Amino acid sequence: GAGVSQSPSNKVTEKGKDVELRCDPISGHTALYWYRQSLGQGLEFLIYFQGNSAPDKSGLPSDRFSAERTGGSVSTLTIQRTQQEDSAVYLCASRRDRKATGELFFGEGSRLTVL
Amino acid sequence: GNSVTQMEGPVTLSEEAFLTINCTYTATGYPSLFWYVQYPGEGLQLLLKATKADDKGSNKGFEATYRKETTSFHLEKGSVQVSDSAVYFCALSEENRDDKIIFGKGTRLHILP
Fold first, then answer.
1. What's the confidence (pLDDT) of residue B35?
2. With DSSP H G I counted as helix, E B as strand and the rest as coil, what are the percentages for chain B, rounded to 5?
3. B19-55, pLDDT tens digit by residue?
4. What average pLDDT does this structure show over A79-89?
5. Which residues of A fall within a CB distance of 8 Å from B105?
6. Strands (E) located in A5-82
7. Residues contacting residue B38 through CB under 8 Å, at least 6 positions apart
8. Residue A85: other Cβ atoms inside 10 A
9. Which residues of B fall below an 8 Å CB-CB distance to A?
10. Helix, strand or coil, per DSSP, at residue B82
11. What 3-state class would DSSP assign to A59?
């Protein structure tokens, strides 16, 4: 597609349930990022995929969070046993390659509300 | 660790006013610096960038100069428009590790007609 696509755009779930958020990056982009945007907290880095390299998971807040990127394209962020503090907008971004320093293209995000 | 600090908002200005949004950073080495903008209902997009000291990034009338001596990258525009109303994020990528982009908390800008 023309841009980074994320789904669902909105998700309301009950505490303790698992959720999956999907990101479809720009075709041909080798790098994919997940960030979390909470009110008043800016963008919090979660995880980064670059090509076939091992992902940088240093930003994942707990072992309830995990992410996969299949075939070097689509990525899924999974949150298990959701908690109220997980409520946020989850943003995905892609980058063409390592030479495109800092040139991230963001999706519109998936807003997660945990009741 | 590396971090970005930007002025808290919201910032409210009248149309045609001069804009400055302050951004300072803490980093080892020589990071690249960026400003991103998030317009209402849209995803973040790169506004401008500077990759080395004294570089000036510019786009859409906005400018920011990479000042290593003051570790700053302030965003400026000489005459703002209502359409500039958005949230602005300062960010950096670490030298030799340009994968992880660290963002500030964002500054909301309101321009009044």
1. 97
2. 5, 55, 40
3. 999 999 998 888 999 999 999 988 899 999 999 999 9
4. 96
5. 40-42
6. 5-7, 10-13, 19-24, 31-38, 42-50, 65-69, 75-79
7. B44, B45, B86, B87, B88, B89, B106
8. 9
9. 32, 34, 36, 41-46, 49, 51, 89, 91, 93, 98-106
10. helix
11. coil
Distance of CA B2 to the CA centre of its chain: 16
How far apart CA B69 and CA B53 sit, in angstroms, is 9
Q: Which amino acid is at B37?
A: V
Residue to mutate among A39, A41, A44, A104, with most B CBs inside 10 A, is: A104
Q: Out of A43, A98, A105, whose CB is closest to B103?
A: A43
Partners of residue B45 in chain A, C-beta under 8 Å: 105-106
d(CA A104, CA A94): 6
